[in-house]
Amino acid sequence: MRKSFLYSSFSLLALTSCDNKDSLIIEDFESGSFENWTMEGDAFGETPEKGALPGQQPLVGLEGKFLANSFHNGDDSRGTLTSKPFRIERDYINFLIGGGMSQDTYIELLVNGQSVHKTHNLIESETLQLMSWDVKAYKGLEATLRIVDNQRGSWGHILVDAIEQSNQYKSNIMENYTLSYDISKKYLLLPIEDNAPENTVQLLVNGEKIGTAQNIRLARTHIQYWLPLSVEAYKGKKISLVFGQATKSDIGINQIKPSDTFDYNYQETYRPNYHFTPPYGWMNDPNGMVYHNGEYHLFYQYNPYGARWGNMHWGHAVSEDMIHWRHLPVAIAPDELGTIFSGSAVVDKHNTAGFGKGAIVAFYTSAGRQQTQSIAYSLDNGRTFTKYAHNPVIPNPGIEDFRDPKVFWYAPQNKWIMSLATSQTITFYTSKNLKQWEKLSEFGENIGAHTGVWECPDLFPLVYEGKTKWVLFVSINPGGPNGGNATQYFIGDFDGTTFTPDPLPYPLWIDYGRDNYAGVTWSNIPESDGRRLFLGWMNNWDYGNVVPTHNFRSAMTLPRELRLAHNGEYMVVASFPVKEVGDEKNGASIIMDKLTEDTLHIGPDYYNNGYVLSFTIKPNGLSIFDFTLQNNKGEKIIYTFDTDKKTFIVDRTQSGLADFSSNFATPLIKAPLTKKDSYTIHIWVDKASTEVFVNGGELAQTNIAFPTEPYNQLKFDLRGNIAISVDNITLYKVKHD
Ligand code: FRU
Questions:
Q1: What are the record keywords, sorted (predicted)?
Q2: pLDDT tens, 223-281?
């Protein structure tokens, strides 16, 4: 139902005095009607409410009987209440606010048609809290109020009550709270509480805004970790941090400290031994993977302001072998077009864009009100990037999920190709100069998995028995084979315009585990190398934001080489860790030709550094067997082969810490297995992950786990089937020191 009441007159809203002579009620909704308001949309219902609506938790802290509640028709409804004009006669306006904390659910004060105050709730809560605006500057002027719910989905509602004018500033919440520092040290250390409500912080240098405001969870009641804000560039200057809102009791506000060092627990329990992690803060998708002048670049979705998703920047690291990484400063930061979502990078050898021969050109999604595609270039080996002056290069055509550009040079037709995720399809574009893009074709309707949004595509060739095939990776969230996100692929042909898939039993997944997402491949790998190199984000949106790490969240999978293989039934894309991370010759210890005991023990020399287990299993006609990775506390991951049901199952329900999310220890993680005479298994074990590869990666399962002690045993259960043989059991080290 949509309705709107329009006033014909502009009479001033009556101000009623209340007991305290100082205060004038603007609106307390106690008349039980919205007679003083113009209404649009259906979110606020026809009249003020007496409390919670069906499906809403009980409301706490409203005054009197009625309030404005935009939960009518649930969170998806939207609407606006606009007050009649009234005169500002006091120093402050105080009001109660509750509901969601989105920027799109807010109360706003307009003076002469200009917005002078706009406030959204600070926490997601049905408890109303008191907020105040300083309106001294507008005394004597006419003003209107707007209460807006323009947010769909979870917490897409607002509660407002008891709006008054007063000479008392009643809230203990301060708006645009500013702290200033004369900079003589390298960092300002910010105390963070992972669950605190998000607040905004804007940096000013000598009064000038630097960059855009970032969201931050400044500690309210206790400090969980510190984040360094690098201010070295402003030595000798005065900088200010302006917090959108602050509460007098926030302990974080009082403890921000200048420092020349940033000391944090880098070695925390679940920091992996040999997988890439950000130094601190949150990381998701790998981005801009390009090889250039002897360096593999890994950019990544990065929040330098906290260990949860938000404030997307491109973090940056370089490596000569994809194992030893050097952290570099943030490469691309948000701007007025939006935050910096996923994308790719190429080397523009022929200077097609005119930025310079050999420039690294990065493509990313500017995630503002709409998603658009932008570019930036680097002429100094990726150390600094300049954003193109005429961004975005691809405007939004009216598609909400329109992102993650992946670009490559298509030599046969001398042109660039971009694959872009466009809701439920991948759209291919072409360009001669990386700046002007033209749509070529769209792929994906009625094929593959579609139960979530399509993201992070990658189109690339692989050669199989001398013949070039084209592979298209498409990540999807949710809708993976075992819940949450996963990366599906298609194999087919590409003629420079259209991708045509081969008939295969889609959906096919590059990894059936729960923790390999948004992976794409490196560009510009030298022909002399010729490998197709890939890595993914080793986490899952189902629980990624709450995994039990501290200063940082998320690791990447091992870098892997991709190849086409035939699994006995159909063609697959196989993935296997790159040779740089070591092989069976690297510090091999237990080598047993035959399994003589059912449990193998792994020494600290191995589990403290990360290790690999490999062996061959010949079922010899029998169907079910399993092996278990376990520790002395009985925490374990069970791997089961069922050759009759043709599944390979990973069970991590008892793997260690699991109660941080109800989505984590979901029962069985299944992958399709083809019947073979023999299976080779490789399991890469790190502090908080296992990556299993069957038959050289024809089947892969990557699953994170949080054991409270390292797994130090491998136990076989052949269910008494002595016919099964387990051979060549090898334990070796990962090459990473
Ligand atoms: C995939 C994704 C991308 C997006 C990025 C935002 O994990 O949702 O589609 O660009 O993460 O961080």
A1: Glycosidase, Hydrolase
A2: 999 999 999 999 999 999 999 888 878 899 889 999 999 988 888 999 999 999 999 99
- The catalytic residues are 285
490 class by beta-carbon count within 10 Å (0-12 exposed, 13-18 middle, 19+ buried): buried
Ligand 1 touching residue 456 (CB < 6 A)? yes
Q: Find out whether the beta carbon of 366 lies less than 6 Å from any atom of ligand 1.
A: no
Mark out the alpha helices in 173-288 (DSSP H runs). 251-255
Write out 346-371 in H/E/C secondary structure.
EEECCCCCCCCCCEEEEEEEEECCCE
Cα 30 to ligand 1 centroid, rounded to whole Å: 45
Distance, CA of 321 to chain centre = 26
Read off the amino acid at residue 457: P
CB 251 within 8 A of CB 223: yes
* Three-point CA angle 169, 170, 172, nearest 5°: 105
Beta strand 281-292 with 552-553 is parallel
H or E segment and range at residue 501: strand 499-501
Which regions of 603-698 does DSSP assign to beta strands (E)? 611-618, 624-630, 636-642, 647-651, 669-672, 679-686, 689-694
User: Both ends of the chain: CA-CA distance in Å?
Assistant: 65
Indicate whether residue 340 lines ligand 1 (CB < 6 A).
Answer: no
| Tokens describing residue 306 | 């906290």
> Taking the model in full, what pTM does it have?
0.85
Q: How far apart are the C-alpha atoms of 496 and 416, rounded to whole Å? A: 9
Tell me the sheet residues that pair with 266: none
CA of 405 to the centre of ligand 1 (A): 11
Per-residue pLDDT, 20: 52
Residues (pLDDT < 50) of the chain are: 1-19
What lies within 8 Å, CB to CB, of 102 at 6+ separation is 120, 151, 155, 156
Query: Distance (Å, rounded) from C-alpha 707 to C-alpha 656?
Result: 4
Q: Quote the pLDDT of residue 21.
A: 65
- Which protein residue's CA is at the shortest distance from atom 6 of ligand 1? 341
Say yes or no: CB of residue 301 within 6 Å of ligand 1.
Answer: yes
Amino acid letter for position 88: I
**Contact predicate 567/698, CB 8 Å:** yes
CA distance 494 to 521: 17
Which residues have C-beta within 8 Å of that of residue 88, sequence separation ≥ 6?
Answer: 111, 135, 138, 139, 140, 141, 142, 143, 165
Of ligand 1's listed atoms, the one at least distance from the Cα of 404 is 10
Specify the pLDDT at position 323: 96
Cα(123)–Cα(199) distance, rounded to whole angstroms? 9
| Reduced 3-state DSSP string for 26-87 | EECCCCCCCCCEEEEECCCCCCCECCCCCCCCCCECCCCCCEEECCCCCCCCCEEEEECCEE
Q: Which atom of ligand 1 is nearest to the CA of 456?
A: 9
Residue 495 confidence (pLDDT): 98
Could you give the angle at the alpha carbon of 469 between the alpha carbons of 583 and 434, nearest 5°? 95
What is the residue type of 231?
A: V
d(CA 540, CA 535): 15
Q: Distance from the CA of 121 to the center of ligand 1, in angstroms?
A: 26
Residue 340 alpha carbon to ligand 1 centre in Å: 10
| Rounded-to-integer distance, Cα 460 and Cα 696, Å | 21
